[in-house]
Amino acid sequence: MRKALSLVLIAVFLVSFFGGVSVVPSVKAAVAQEVTYNLGTEPATIDPAVSQGIPEANVMLQTFDGLTRLDNKNMPQPAIAKSWTISKDRKTYIFTLRDAFWTNGTPVTAYDFEYAWKRALSPELAAVYAYQLYYIYGGEAFNTSIKVGSKYYVQAVDAKGNPLTKKEGGKDVPVADLKKEIDPSKNVGVKALTAKTLKVYLQSPTAYFLNLTAFPTLMPVCKAVVSTNDKWAADLTNYVTNGPFKLTQWSHNDKMTFVKNPTYWDKNAVKLTKITYLMVTDESTALSMFQSGQMDVGSTVPLSELPKLVASGDAQILPYLGTYYYQMNVTKKPFNDVRVRKALNLAIDRKAIVTSITKGGQVPALAYVPNGIADAAAGSDFRTVGGTFYKDDDIATAKALLAQAGYPNGKGFPTFTLLFNTSNAHQSIAEAIQQMWKKNLGITCTLKVEEWGVYLDDRNNLNYQVARAGWIGDYMDPNTFLDMWLTNGGNNGTGWSNKTYDALIAKAKATVDPKARMATLHAAEKILMTEYPIIPIYFYTNPVLITKHVKNFYQSTLGFVDWKNAYMG
Amino acid sequence: MAAPTTWQFKEGVTPDAGSFVPAPKNSGELEQITGRPTTYWSDAIRRIRRNKLAVVGFWIIIALFVIAIFGPMVSPYSYEDQDLENTFQSPTLQHPFGTDQLGRDQMTRVMYGSRISLAVGIVCAALNFLIGVTYGGISAYFGGRVDDIMMRIVDILYGIPTLIIVILLTVLFKDKGVSPLVNVFIAIGLTYWLPMARIVRGEILSLKEREFALAAKTIGAPNNRILFKHLIPNAMGPIIVTVTLEVPSAIFTEAFLSYIGLGVSAPVASWGVLASDGTEAIRSFPYLVLFPALAICLTMFAFNFLGDGLRDALDPRLRQ
Amino acid sequence: MFKFILQRVLSMILVILIVASATFFMMRLLPSGPFSREKKLPAQIIKNLEARYHLDDPLWKQYVDYMGNLLRFNLGPSFKYTDRTVNNIINDGFPVSAILGVVAVILAVGIGIPLGIWGALKQNGWQDNLVMFIALLGVSVPNFIMAVLLMFIFALGLHLVPAAGWGSVRQVILPAFTLAGYPIAFIARLVRSSMLEVLRQEYITTARAKGLSERLVIFRHALRNILIPVVTVLGPLIAAVFTGSFVVEKIFAIPGLGRYYVTSINDRDYTVILGVTIFYSALLVFMNFLVDLTYAWLDPRIRYVERKVS
């Protein structure tokens, strides 16, 4: 009896495993212009100033319209600004605004932009992405100023130039230098000249500034509403916006509903009448819902299913501006030796990793800056121009370098720890690389997984030997990948420092001529790729689930989705 | 007249004295009316032998241990040897359980993983008996203020988020050279006896008011004797059930712990880790989760068969 | 009895305060804080944020402030979800988790107890073995596999229910069964084991000898005495399932409270960690209090107050 029973149960298991997962195409009514998208997670906020990540950006891009908007080639196009002029030193921008309206019927003015940007920079709002506005003259100074009463002051410094603090109620309070006031109405480089003219003065010529004006942090807010209600974004009835869609419902951790905004200036270009965002975090569940017709587009795809879904046309692999790499603590032996670092870099078979493990169309990284960033010449790509810096899986050179460093065939090489954070994908890659180093170089490392916060803490405090890391660009310029490696840069967690490199990055920042600027950045990358504080592994891709009915879907290489021009067909 | 053969008279003592003579020392043997002597434990073992399922369970467990110890030694593969050309192979004669995402032989990995999972299971069961049963028993037996304090401590341990404790443990044990399994045992030891303590307490609260317990108390039996010889054996049913059900959840908790970074590090993988990793690929490669899950099920069946047998065998009211 | 209840309520409040304090200080020992990112924020921005949320105050002051607010049932703002308070988060998530919890507990009791009784009455028969098989499957298949299997079979395979999501009655079924899987098994096994013991007691033999029907014997005489372990299990179980399960809510995309028990810790969202922990502890001590009251009702011999020696 027991045997028969178990046979039945096994049969049920097998049927459910192998036969049960049939894909049933969802039958949609002719062309209802409605789409359901899986955002993947609950957005932390819907206030553009305090926005901080991709999920938030994917809400803000529908509800707001900035000075510019990116087209599907990631190039900035006029949006609320209908035109602009740029000064010769490329530091002053004058934007002319078009006639556009907020959802409450009032016009969108230059004053709204000025207010929104200064609000995002104000120290008391404590916006996470305030640094996106540091390009504006006086932006950083204002954001780091000290408020006394209703006025802002520069923090006082002692004779050595160290910032002064005093003890007050048991905590360190910064001391304001009352002789150095920062008046945001005068000392911050953004000013509404008229209701329709906005003047922006930059700290230094910033080649990608018009890309930044399409970024959520730089979206305008309705001054009349926001200045009188600091909880405006907590309640949808106060959520006054100016984008192609209007957020009408938000049930937390569940879904958001957007409808077409009838007051939008370019409403004729908008075809979708309704967008539903779901917040399904589990990748496998999202796939199940996609397959059962509960969603049309999904932001995540389970790794193991990706090749099959791409083949069947249910998934697309989109470009993503990011690099997956390992970083080394160059302050500790044996990683203080560049030959060791280079040997570790060369002894990795990246092609095997992307074809057998990640399987998402990732590109083996033979340099640090990924593909997809325009170079100076029209139509050229920074990566193609820069070329590659080393050969993949170059075991012979790696062995020679290791021998030169004093570890022939890995003899005497200390066992070290490879640190990564909790994730099966990171673990598989780490296991593969562990074995490659063992097999190719004869060196042993142990794998150490840590919870996210513990891992970040160890990585930031140089409390590691080799650690996994990844970097997604903030804007479409090589600088977003290169300026992080400045000496003591906040995101340079390797202890690596190079004076020439620092000088080149500073030079690029001040260079107006695009050609000279790009040449400088290429030179900087070359230094990074001779010194090897890092081991680039692959350039990210962004796989999405998408039905064939969705047309004109646009996701930028920064991962931002814009539904303005999409439609169902 | 012939004297009864079993009677012997001492020389010099006249039988007509009519007095009875003490029997010789070896006569006790003859007066025995039962067969071999039997104790609580021999009785239990005898009864458990008659329970076929329990015997089957026992042998499965022996087999599991043999495989855990010797399986990885005789396997032609190692648990860590990768073959990136042959990832996600379906089960074949060469790889009876298939290969995983890095082309490793899943059968070897399952055999190797049993070492960790069985150890975790056994330690969890032991902790349940040592801490859970004793704690719950004492709390209920003494009752009143003692019970209130002890049970509120249990509530506090239930309330503090385990995840925080576990992350703190990973920080505490970092680079301390403590065996990773010991970390897991400590983490499991912190909370896994709590349900047992509560269940035993509930049972003992009721049992200690029964006649047999009151009787034992009346004749002056010491507290620990009443608790451990009279009350706890009577609560053996729920105790065994609780142990056998806590063990699988401890096995999966170990997987969670190693995910957080507490426990053995990759490429070593326990059954729990193999099963949860396999779940990610369940649509296309269900065998990856199937075999570790089956291994866990088989172990649970074996322990439950044996556990049931033990329960019946140890139940004082079932003694024949 | 009144004295017992009063004492108990005081000790419950003490438990909640101890849990809150221990959690407060332990979570602050965790490496990283609410504003740690892979892309490290500029130091000044972190300072601004800490000033905004008073995280730059000395720890003891933060503790005193938090406890003061707690007494007024103000659990503070979330650091991650900047437009929401912890009270908002609990108000939104708890009803969802509780609905699922009620259904799961009903399933656990409604299926677990009859299965256990059935198994015990047919001890060692095929029915008993079947019950044991189901129960063991219930405990050895963890909820993350169970959830996926149920979804594949009933949503993707048979199209009986939606795969995931929240909003309709049909979307409750799969997550509720997943949640109930382990408790069904636990309760069925406990009931079977207790039932076997009870059926051997003299009073059952007496009841049978009196000629009572088997049904009456079981429901009037036996059932009450097997419920003590079941009730013990139900206390913490109800507290746990009513406040939501991380795994089940994640897999079935349910907007409940359970997710926060894990995500808030990963995000170091201090106020949310404390809020949901305190909420769960309060429910737990209350349930365990009810359990103790139920014991006294199930078995009148159980007393919590020391008997006066007369």
Automatic annotation (TrEMBL), chain A:
Residues 76-492 form the Solute-binding protein family domain. One of its GO terms (biological process) is peptide transport. SUPFAM superfamilies: Periplasmic binding protein-like II. Transmembrane segments: none annotated. One of its GO terms (molecular function) is peptide transmembrane transporter activity. One of its GO terms (cellular component) is ATP-binding cassette (ABC) transporter complex. It comes from the Bacteria. InterPro entries: Peptide/Ni-bd, SBP_5, SBP_5_dom. Pfam families: SBP_bac_5 (PF00496). PANTHER family: DIPEPTIDE-BINDING PROTEIN DPPE (PTHR30290:SF79), PERIPLASMIC BINDING COMPONENT OF ABC TRANSPORTER (PTHR30290). This is Peptide ABC transporter substrate-binding protein. It comes from Candidatus Cryosericum hinesii.
UniProtKB/TrEMBL annotation, chain B:
Residues 114-307 form the ABC transmembrane type-1 domain. It is a multi-pass membrane protein. Keywords: Cell membrane, Membrane, Transmembrane, Transmembrane helix, Transport. It is found in: Cell membrane. It holds the Pfam family OppC_N. Its main location: membrane. SUPFAM superfamilies: MetI-like. It comes from the Bacteria. InterPro entries: BP-dependent_transpt_permease, MetI-like, MetI-like_sf, OppC_N. The chain crosses the membrane at residues 53-74, 116-142, 154-173, 179-200, 257-275, 287-306. GO terms for biological process: transmembrane transport. One of its GO terms (cellular component) is plasma membrane. Belongs to the binding-protein-dependent transport system permease family. This is ABC transporter permease. It comes from Candidatus Cryosericum hinesii. The lineage of its organism: Bacteria, Pseudomonadati, Caldisericota/Cryosericota group, Candidatus Cryosericota, Candidatus Cryosericia.
UniProtKB/TrEMBL annotation, chain C:
It is found in: Cell membrane. It is a multi-pass membrane protein. One of its GO terms (cellular component) is plasma membrane. The keyword Isomerase does not apply. Residues 94-295 form the ABC transmembrane type-1 domain. Belongs to the binding-protein-dependent transport system permease family. InterPro entries: BPD_transp_1_N (IPR045621), MetI-like (IPR000515), MetI-like_sf (IPR035906). It comes from Candidatus Cryosericum hinesii. The chain crosses the membrane at residues 12-30, 94-118, 130-160, 172-191, 226-252, 272-298. Keywords: Cell membrane, Membrane, Transmembrane, Transmembrane helix, Transport. The keyword Zinc does not apply. This is ABC transporter permease. GO terms for biological process: transmembrane transport.
